[in-house]
Design goal:
By secondary structure, the chain is mainly α. It has helices at 2-19, 22-31, 33-57, 68-87, 116-132, 135-163, 165-172, 180-183, 191-194, 196-216. 69% of the residues lie in helices and 0% in strands. The longest helix is centred in the middle third of the chain and has 29 residues, at 135-163. The model has no long low-confidence stretch (mean pLDDT 90).
């Protein structure tokens, strides 16, 4: 368990202590943007791999009764956000087209939240934390959820400084919290822009994850109901 906590702290430190501080600019100036991104990706991959390995070997200490139904209910929405976010031009993605300078920068899933990938990860982590109910899962999914959801705030701050008026225009027409801009009347839900094919793909991924879950991740979500 100590190793698991250490791995979680290293993961958070490798992200918030590098990419979200002046250290990033210092490294980029000396290594170049491309070399920095490759090294950072390798560090992040190693940290996540260590975290998952430590979680798999940690003792089981139950904190509350598992609730697998919650993950089963939430995951289709999480996967739709992930699929849509990965397949729609993202203004904060590395190497993405310059969406912010367009006359209409908000499209598709970004009408729901300006951080669909992060919220997809956050919903996955939160639902699995509650679904598992043990101490090791609390450490694993809290750290991954914090990485994603605190990351949305850091991205907002970074792009507000980098893109100024373009980002402010985008942020004013969107929301971090899913559906908040729609509920407040600042945005509309345009599911046709999201596309039925993305919904179908998310459901296919969902079915595949349910099928392989007992072998890849342990447990049987459907069988535990």
């Amino acid at each position: 368990m100590i190793e698991l906590v250490g791995a979680a702290l290293i993961l958070l430190a490798s992200h918030f202590g590098i990419s979200s501080t002046p250290l990033r600019a210092w490294l980029v100036a000396r290594l170049g943007e491309r070399v920095y991104l490759v090294l950072y990706a390798l560090i992040a991959l190693a940290a996540i791999s260590w975290l998952i390995s430590a979680w798999a070997r940690a003792p089981y200490v139950e904190l509350w009764a598992p609730a697998p139904w919650l993950a089963l209910l939430v995951m289709p929405f999480a996967l739709l956000l992930l699929v849509s976010g990965l397949s729609t031009p993202n203004p904060t993605a590395v190497g993405a087209p310059d969406v912010l300078s367009r006359s209409e920068p908000v499209h598709g899933v970004f009408r729901i939240t300006r951080h669909p990938i992060m919220w997809g990860v956050g919903l996955w982590a939160g639902s699995h934390l509650i679904a598992n109910g043990d101490l090791a899962s609390l450490v694993l999914f809290t750290s991954l959820g914090a990485l994603a959801l605190l990351g949305t705030l850091l991205i907002d701050r970074k792009y507000a400084l980098r893109r100024g008026a373009d980002w402010q225009r985008f942020a004013a027409a969107t929301s971090n919290l899913p559906l908040a801009a729609i509920v407040s009347g600042r945005q509309r839900l345009a599911f046709a822009e999201v596309g039925w094919w993305r919904l179908a793909l998310a459901l296919v991924v969902y079915a595949l994850l349910l099928a392989v879950h007992p072998w890849w991740f342990g447990g049987a979500p459907l069988g535990s109901l």
